[in-house]
Amino acid sequence: MSKVGIIANPASGKDIRRLVAYASNVDNTDKVNQLKRIILGIEATGVDEILIMPDYYGLGERALDGLKSERLRAKASIMDMTLSCTAEDSTLAAALMAKLGVGCIVTLGGDGTNRDVAKSNRSIPLVPVSTGTNNVFPLTIEPTAAGIAAGLIAQNLVNGKDTVRTHKRLVVIRNGFEVDLALVDVVVLNQLFTGCRAIWELDEVREVICTRAEPTSLGLTSIGGNLHPLGPDDEQGMYLKLGDGQLKVRATVLPGVISEVGIEQWRLLAPGEEIEIACKPSVMALDGERELTVKPADQVKIRLERDGPPVVDVEKTIREAVKKGFFRN
């Protein structure tokens, strides 16, 4: 039986960067509409079952309620799980979906949402649809197309070797133990408390370690992208130490905010290479959200790995289905 999972984050796209920059506000009414389109896209491929993570706003329930007139052939339901109304819900939902034999997961959220999913899943292919702020990992794509691609992958109707790629990840190691991960970047801030989770004060940023650095992206990875572009398929990562160096780079660090950034040093990282955090005490932000405090006595290292979650290339997936005649009557 073919199954697709959907994990939608009602909290994405609502942080403080709407006050300090020109970020768009993605409300939950729009997310419900996007969910409907994802479900209909999945349905069109002939998938047997669609499992949706529950959430405090009821995104899934509202989407299914709005689709009653469509008479879905697929069995679409809200998963039976206990909610904590925290990021842990996404992690738990992904783990449960793996146990239930889901063949593909569509995520609706930002970099942080996908990081939470990757904590418990590095085997099921993801179709990440963007609804956050400075998104690098998820795609800005028509939700219907995302649903179609997920359905095709879940039923093995296309060649996964050609349409799914393994993303890089950053492993956080504190005092010899792996404690967390990031899919896009680890940012070290000269602060003592996590406070508001989103990053917007560039003056506090000391170090940036990233899996990819694209000049067209928003956020701190765009700094590296304007030095030496790195995409998701490149083997390497990048380390940046910000400061008063002679090298200056202009980058889009927030929506509508282009800043000049001083760089003391930077270099590329090879898979398996570790960077020891020099700024202590400090706070580390993982994929754009302050998560961990670093004490003076802590030894913290960040390691680049090539074994992150598999990500579906939506365009390649649908194009291959076209070549195979999937959409012909």
Plain-language structure description:
The protein is an alpha+beta fold and 329 residues long. It folds into 2 domains: 3-167 and 308-323, Probable inorganic polyphosphate/atp-NAD kinase, domain 1 (Rossmann fold), CATH 3.40.50.10330; 169-305, Tumour Suppressor Smad4. Helices cover 24% and strands 32% of the residues. It has 9 helices and 17 strands. The chain has helices at residues 17-20, 28-44, 59-66, 88-99, 111-118, 143-154, 160-163, 221-225, 314-323, and strands spanning 3-8, 49-52, 75-78, 104-109, 126-130, 164-166, 169-174, 177-182, 185-189, 205-210, 237-254, 257-269, 274-276, 282-286, 289-294, 300-305, 310-312. The strands form 4 sheets. Strands 12-11-10-9-14-15 form a 6-stranded antiparallel beta sheet. Helix 5 links the parallel strand 4 (104-109) and strand 5. The longest helix has 17 residues, at 28-44. Mean pLDDT is 92; it is low at 16-21.
Category from helices, strands and their pairing: alpha+beta
Unreliable segments of 5+ consecutive residues? 16-21
Helix content: 10-25%
In the sheet with the most strands, the strands line up as 12-11-10-9-14-15
Separate helix tally: 9
This entry's quaternary arrangement is single chain
Radius of gyration, in angstroms, nearest whole number: 20 Å
Highest CATH level, the class of the largest domain: Alpha Beta
Blueprint of the fold:
Layout: E1 3-8, H1 17-20, H2 28-44, E2 49-52, H3 59-66, E3 75-78, H4 88-99, E4 104-109, H5 111-118, E5 126-130, H6 143-154, H7 160-163, E6 164-166, E7 169-174, E8 177-182, E9 185-189, E10 205-210, H8 221-225, E11 237-254, E12 257-269, E13 274-276, E14 282-286, E15 289-294, E16 300-305, E17 310-312, H9 314-323
Parallel strand pairs: 1-2, 1-4, 2-3, 4-5
Antiparallel strand pairs: 6-17, 7-8, 7-16, 9-10, 9-14, 10-11, 11-12, 13-16, 14-15
Helix pairs in contact: 2-3, 2-6, 4-5, 6-9
